[in-house]
Amino acid sequence: MGRNPNNSLREAVKTLPNLSCFLIDGRQDLNPAEFMHTERHVLLLSMADCPIPLPTKFVSYECLRGLVYLDISGTPGSVRPFLQRDLLPELRVLKIRHKEVDDAAFEALTTQFETRLWSLDLGSNKLTDHALEFLGARCLYPTDLRSDVHFDVEGKLEFGRVTPDYGGWIRVVESPWSGSFDHPERHLVDAPSYDPHDTLPQEDQLKRLDGRGPIQSDSADGVCRGLLGEDPYFASASFQSSQGLTHLNLSDNQISSLGIRKLLTLGRGHLQQFSCDSMPLVPPSKATARAWPRTAKLYGYLYVHTLRPVLSSNLRVVRLHHSVVTQIPTLEIDGLSTMARLCIAETSILPRSEKAFAQALVPDTNPRLTSLTLTRIPRRSSGPLISKLINLLKLLSIQERIISDAQSRRGPCTLAGLRHLRLEFEPDPFEEGFSMAEDLDAEELLNSGDKGFSFFEDEVQQQPPRPSSVIGRTLNSSLPIQSEDESVRHEPEYLSADVSLDEQLTKVQVWIGPKVSDNSVVDTRGYTLLSLGISHGVVHGGDAPDYRNADADQP
């Protein structure tokens, strides 16, 4: 293109009357501000990682008024100029990775675009759980896609009142089939629904997808083909319209698993594609700082029930930390080698996470999923992680065989099932210069009892009273003495507590588990509620299935 590629490209733009999509990712020598002076509307501009800063007035170019797709990830400068009111009115896909977007900037973004965007990539920024409040309230379409129609297969939702900390709480009510994911019709697409009260044409009604076809691609190539009318499944107009956010990437932020849980629980079932490759298990707080080693951090996602179709009705493509399947969080702690951290995660943390979160993601947890990517998988394992992944592959084979058998019988249309599984591995510690002798001592260090190493040292030094005994004494303090068997049989499983609902104190029944349980997690929960007198904020979205399964799964 000569010595000045911008001049050459400017001339090329003039001679190509149908040119409307520009993909110049990573180009060091191209400046869109110089070659995009054109009278025709540009529909797509992808310039990720281009090092040349754009002038402030660039976003006000008339040729960008009809811009549908914009990727400015990793480019110099702030996103603020792109958030001016009345600019980019047709924008539907926005990718702003590595732009140092914080909660304040994101609030301005949600105010500007509201439900106009259907795809938003916010990877590698500075967002916290607080940012999800703006996203859920402004960017997701207000219509709730979840219903009781599929109760037998998926369960249903029971909605409660609004709490100041959580919002409206939701409880999953299981059918005889839904909790075990084994309903005979779980692999069938949704049958067409007909409502005599509907007055709009069926194509204009916002309902959950039937699960049969693919979802729109939000990649630069996919959107380009769609805008040019070359997508075999979606019309060009569908890429230029929006009914709220459906594709979302939150990877590499400061958003915790609690924030993700709340987003998926209260998201009204609209998300179709979701990515968050790693997240802290809990957000930083003074409480966690007191109970947790200062240099230790756990990353992962264990709230599997939020991925079920009863909550995430349209979810088809997921990219999450591998713990959603393996139940093994990633441990980061100063002073320990990689192999030592992996050993602790598999031998000490895994048994606890299995008790607290009894459900791991399996293919039939959500048969509507077609693609699953598991991230941050370690290259080394003493066995548990390998066993979990092998079990997932076996279950995928079983699901594929069941769907194939159903299709061969010429019955109703079936779902595709989980067709794409991607495993993203961490670097091999032995290839990064770590000492093998040091790493192989991890298990010995774990069992040594050394105070400087012990990850759960308070368990030995400050042993609390047995939770189940505290529960028994608290509940039975005013009851006549009776035999242990009779006491166990009649022991209540709920605690009456005062919580703030709709700005008023209301009595609710909080599940505390049975008096006698083999699961220390259930015992500790009851101990915390009863012995410590915790009543504020006990309702956090209703009883998650994990608590009940933690006790039910005991032998």
TrEMBL record:
<keyword id="KW-0406">Ion transport</keyword>
<keyword id="KW-0812">Transmembrane</keyword>
<keyword id="KW-1015">Disulfide bond</keyword>
<keyword id="KW-1003">Cell membrane</keyword>
<dbReference type="InterPro" id="IPR001611">
    <property type="entry name" value="Leu-rich_rpt"/>
</dbReference>
<keyword id="KW-0472">Membrane</keyword>
<dbReference type="InterPro" id="IPR051432">
    <property type="entry name" value="KCNMA1_auxiliary"/>
</dbReference>
<keyword id="KW-0407">Ion channel</keyword>
<dbReference type="InterPro" id="IPR032675">
    <property type="entry name" value="LRR_dom_sf"/>
</dbReference>
<dbReference type="GO" id="GO:0034220">
    <property type="term" value="P:monoatomic ion transmembrane transport"/>
</dbReference>
<keyword id="KW-1133">Transmembrane helix</keyword>
<keyword id="KW-0732">Signal</keyword>
<protein>
    <submittedName>
        <fullName>Uncharacterized protein</fullName>
    </submittedName>
</protein>
<dbReference type="GO" id="GO:0005886">
    <property type="term" value="C:plasma membrane"/>
</dbReference>
<keyword id="KW-0813">Transport</keyword>
